Recover the amino acids of this structure.
């Protein structure tokens, strides 16, 4: 395995991206807009829940990370209307977007924890 | 009397040994309290007004200030975006090492679904403030009109007794001011200039923080604190400080 495959963590202006392993199916994505510390976990959605990439990508989210974050309507109101995460997080398919806030909103504290974890892996 | 038996049963008077009735008497926080339930390290006090002895008129007498400033946290809404902390730093010139408000986090990796919860804290502007009691120079005092705990910086000698006595860890020593600094509900920076709410309340995107006059039955804080549907609690009621910051869930 190439070194670059092992760790793919990136702190960019738009947010934080961190890939734990190849099997995870994609990186853990930390959005920072409109509020800091919002997690989308590929590991949970693809590896643990077994969702298919095609089921969400292209239709709801583009392949490029943080692309949706640039849209002005990337906020909770859009989610309640069934856009973005709200397409599934509607209370029927998955828990509704207006419940269990701190599940996805891991906050600045959660973001720091994730960064530390990524750094620890990188040191190894 | 069998002294051997007597000494064997002698126990120190820790909190666990105090009967519930005594606790209830002790824990009067300016409201009518009818239930005490332990939850984690914090004691939850449930205030149920209608069940209590006081009518709302009588209850009014318990609020000695006008406006009686108070804050309610709808705690499960908090997402730790830190906008409140940043707004506070900017508004009140809080340095990097200090804080007037903080967000605490509780993580339980074995919990079902959501595994962390955030809890913002700030000065509780207590009715019976331990910090005011211990201050040797009266640099910190409770404002007679609004009930806000304020600081007179030039009187502060930096003994930090107030920091130790505060049950809520709401004070820090400001090196630049050479005095202890704390939340004053933005009195200096905003309220005294005619603005109605503190910076942290204004900036919160999910309305965790509700601010208002607890003695005004039309205010949102009054309505939340004086209802029966949802539990309302204060932090560390056992200290007897009678805080004016309440917590509930949305």
């Amino acid at each position: 395995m190439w070194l670059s495959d092992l760790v793919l963590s990136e702190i960019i202006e738009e947010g934080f991206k961190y890939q734990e392993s190849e099997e995870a199916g994609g990186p853990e994505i930390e959005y920072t807009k409109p509020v800091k510390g919002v997690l989308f976990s590929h590991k949970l959605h693809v590896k643990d829940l077994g969702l298919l990439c095609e089921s969400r990508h292209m239709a709801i989210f583009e392949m490029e990370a943080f692309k949706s974050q640039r849209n002005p309507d990337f906020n909770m109101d859009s989610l309640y209307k069934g856009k973005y995460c709200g397409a599934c997080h509607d209370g029927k398919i998955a828990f509704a977007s207006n419940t269990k806030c701190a599940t996805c909103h891991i906050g600045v504290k959660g973001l720091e924890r994730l960064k530390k974890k990524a750094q620890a892996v990188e040191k190894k | 009397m069998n002294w051997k038996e007597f000494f064997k049963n002698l126990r120190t008077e820790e909190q666990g040994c105090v009967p519930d009735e005594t606790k209830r008497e002790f824990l009067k926080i300016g409201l009518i309290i009818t239930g005490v339930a332990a939850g984690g390290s914090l004691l939850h006090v449930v205030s149920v007004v209608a069940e209590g002895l006081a009518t709302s008129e009588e209850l009014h007498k318990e609020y000695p200030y006008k406006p009686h400033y108070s804050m309610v946290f709808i705690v499960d809404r908090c997402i730790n975006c830190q906008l409140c902390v940043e707004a506070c730093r900017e508004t009140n010139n809080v340095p990097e090492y200090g804080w007037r408000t903080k967000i605490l986090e509780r993580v339980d990796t074995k919990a079902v679904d959501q595994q962390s919860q955030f809890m913002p804290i700030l000065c509780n502007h207590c009715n019976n403030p331990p910090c005011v009691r211990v201050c040797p120079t009266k640099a910190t005092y409770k404002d007679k009109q609004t009930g806000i705990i304020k600081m007179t910086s030039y009187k502060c000698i930096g003994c930090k007794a107030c920091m130790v006595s505060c049950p809520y860890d709401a004070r820090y020593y400001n090196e630049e001011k050479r005095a202890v600094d704390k939340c004053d509900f933005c009195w200096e920076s905003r309220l005294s200039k005619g603005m109605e709410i503190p910076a942290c309340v204004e900036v919160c995107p999910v309305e965790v923080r509700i601010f208002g006059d607890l003695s005004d039955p039309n205010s949102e804080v009054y309505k939340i604190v004086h209802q029966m549907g949802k539990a309302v609690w204060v932090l560390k009621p056992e200290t007897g400080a009678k805080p004016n910051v309440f917590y509930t869930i949305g």
In short: Helices of chain B lie at 3-8, 20-26, 56-60, 83-92, 130-134, 161-165, 199-203, 220-225. Residues 14-248 of chain B form a domain with the Alpha-Beta Plaits fold (CATH 3.30.70.20). Residues 74 and 225 of chain B are 11 Å apart (CA to CA). Chain B has eight helices and eleven strands.
